[in-house]
Write a structure and sequence with these properties.
The structure holds two protein chains of two kinds. By secondary structure, chain A is mainly α. Chain A has twelve helices and two strands; from the N terminus they run αααααββααααααα. Chain A has a single domain, classed as MetI-like (MetI-like fold, Orthogonal Bundle), CATH 1.10.3720. The mean pLDDT of chain B is 95. In chain B, α3 crosses α4. Chain B is an alpha/beta fold. The interface between A and B is medium-sized, with 26 and 36 residues. The site of magnesium ion has 3 residues of chain B, from α1.
Chain lengths: 315, 254
């Protein structure tokens, strides 16, 4: 902080060529050097022990990293994450709109949903969904409250491990997303709705064209975090045989006993997924902060920002 | 003889116990510019909000261009107007705000296009062309692709005026359009409003700009505590107020 450059040199990349660039002599900071040195040493030592430790079986890690079974599990993890997040976001938007509606019944329903699914552990919910057949052995379409049924299915054939995982993850996610969406809606200036209403816009259009796009700026960053956290949370479904990455890794090490190696294989894939997702989050946040940043179209920064935007944008 | 542009009869509005409008009668002819002045809390903003039914009055009626606003009368009883028809009424009444309320996620051009596209269903290319013309009219053609945050307050208010004009309103309501502006930016907005007045637009302007009221206004209304205390030609009211309350208010703002 004490080395803050003031004046023309702070103006940008060309600043240093300016005729009167400031000359700044940075003071020595022995404490920082020492800390950096220690950190580097620890990192090197950690890397070295990990690399040469014979118990880690890097050769086996390499063998399994692209194993067919592992890749299938990876694919299930990706599918579960994307599907539960999509359903979770849709549920979250619906429930958030219920929470801000004028109808008391809608508000109460939304509140009960959030209360229940945020108030019980996800692990318990997952096991519940997996065993739903114990409560409802059959699922049918027909007249509610004990009326005749048109068609029925065995719950156990309908709710597979994957379906139970999807139900558990997405319904739980919906409860969290609704709180995020609601915070976003609340952050939009009420004057925006008034201005849109004065133009003659319908409530639905005001929501879709004016309020939600602005709320997105608030909603997107925590949703990105939810997505990244979901990538890892899917590993919980290994308890209900969800066939995800961790499940298949476990299945493999139960037969060949290479516990550590297979956990490393899974961890590497989780790291790859979260890293890719973080990059995506960065670009999404850019896309939704339009009009709130300081990027002036026509400048280099503005143009780069526009190039980085997703091409599917409506206008 | 055509109906007046605005006819407001015995309009009453309260929030809970607080009576904000206590029987407003007001008639405004086509093409008139009416300036509304009065102390803070006298109900000026509430009156404007009742005129386009953003606020539902407890009693009284508002007619714009001969049409009852917000209700339909059947067999002597009032029923709330279906949403679509209320929206059509609002569409024909422009509204400007102290804090502009431009859509921050859209550029100046997109702000002006918004009503054309989302309300009138005009195709994008045509909307873009018309919005460009309107921005030109308020002197901001070169700012079309700026976001509101990149514009000065005066420029934002001019974009907001263009956004309203895009709906081809027959009446425009201004709620203190220059109060949030730095003094040096007030002039450019008043200039655009003067042009509008000269083009024959019927305007109701809540303002503290007495110079504008005197120069451009056809009629001045002084409100206090939810009532119209005094009204008349601006020069007369400003030069020789008849009521003590008007005199007290004017002595503070002039
Ligand atoms: N939605 C509301 N709920 C409760 N009270 C309100 C509401 N809107 C306005 N009021 C009250 O009504 C009174 C009149 O408000 P209004 O905004 O119409 O005054 P104004 O003449 O525009 O004042 P100003 O010059 O400060 O803008 C104020 O006392 C205000 O607190
Ligand atoms: Mg006001």
């Amino acid at each position: 902080m004490d080395a803050t450059v003031v004046g023309p040199a702070a103006a940008g990349p060309t600043g240093s060529e300016a005729p009167e660039a400031n000359r700044i002599s940075h003071p020595l900071r022995p404490g920082r050097w020492l800390a950096a040195g220690v950190t580097a040493l620890v990192l090197v030592w950690l890397g070295w022990t990990v690399a040469i430790n014979p118990n880690l079986h890097w050769d086996i890690v390499a063998d399994y990293q692209f194993d067919r079974v592992i890749l299938d599990g990876l694919w299930v993890t990706v599918q579960l994450t994307v599907a539960s997040m999509v359903i979770g976001v849709v549920l979250g938007v619906v429930v958030a709109l219920m929470q801000v509606s004028d109808s008391r019944i809608l508000r109460t329903g939304a509140m009960a949903y959030v209360w229940f699914f945020r108030g019980t552990p996800l692990l318990v919910q997952l096991i519940f969904w997996f065993n739903i057949a114990l409560i409802f052995p059959e699922i049918g379409l027909g007249v509610p409250f004990g009326g005749p049924k048109l068609i029925t299915w065995e719950t156990n054939t309908l709710v597979t491990g994957f379906v139970a995982a999807l139900l558990g993850l997405s319904i739980n996610e919906g409860a969290y997303m609704s709180e995020i969406v609601r915070a976003g809606l609340r952050a939009v200036d009420p004057g925006q709705q008034e201005a849109a209403a004065a133009l003659g816009m319908s409530r639905t259009k005001i929501m879709k064209r004016v309020v939600l796009p602005q709320a997105m700026r608030i909603i997107v960053p925590p949703t990105g975090n939810q997505f990244i956290s979901m990538l890892k949370t899917t590993s919980l479904v290994s308890v209900i045989a969800g066939a995800d990455l961790l499940t298949v890794a476990q299945r493999l090490y139960l037969t060949n006993f290479e516990v550590i190696a297979l956990l490393i294989v899974a961890s590497i894939w989780y790291l790859v997924l979260t890293t890719v997702a973080s990059a995506g989050q960065y670009y999404l946040e850019r896309r939704f902060s339009r009009g709130f940043g300081t990027t002036v179209p026509g400048t280099l920064r503005g143009r780069i920002a526009r190039n980085l935007r997703f091409s599917g944008s409506a206008r | 003889m055509t109906a007046p542009m605005v006819r407001c009869r015995a309009l009453r509005k309260s929030f809970g116990r607080l009576e904000v409008l206590r029987g407003i009668d007001l008639t405004i002819e086509r093409g008139q510019v009416v300036c509304v002045v009065g102390p803070s809390g006298s109900g000026k903003s509430t009156l404007l909000r009742c005129l386009n039914h953003l606020e539902e009055p407890q009693a009284g009626r508002v007619y714009v261009d001969g049409e009852l606003i917000g209700y339909e009368e059947r067999g002597g009883r009032l029923r709330p107007l279906p949403d679509a028809r209320l929206r059509r009424q609002r569409e024909s009444i422009g509204k400007l705000f102290q804090r502009f309320h431009l859509f921050p996620h859209r550029t100046a051009l997109e702000n002006v296009m918004e009503g054309l596209v989302a309300v009138k269903g005009v195709r994008a290319a045509e909307a873009r062309r018309r919005a460009g013309e309107l921005l030109d009219r308020v002197g901001l053609a070169d700012r079309a692709h700026h976001y509101p945050a990149q514009l000065s307050g005066g420029q934002q208010q001019r974009v907001a005026i263009a956004r309203s004009l895009a709906m081809s309103p027959k009446l425009m309501l201004f709620d203190e359009p220059t109060s949030a502006l730095d003094p040096e930016l007030v002039g450019e907005v008043l200039e655009v409003m003067k042009d509008l007045a000269a083009s024959g637009m019927t305007m109701i302007v809540v303002t503290h700009e007495m110079g504008f009221a005197r120069e451009v206004g056809d009629h001045l209304v002084f409100m206090d505590e939810g009532l119209i205390v005094e009204q008349g030609p601006p020069r007369d009211v400003l030069a020789a107020p008849r009521h003590d309350r008007t005199r007290a208010f004017l002595s503070k703002v002039l």
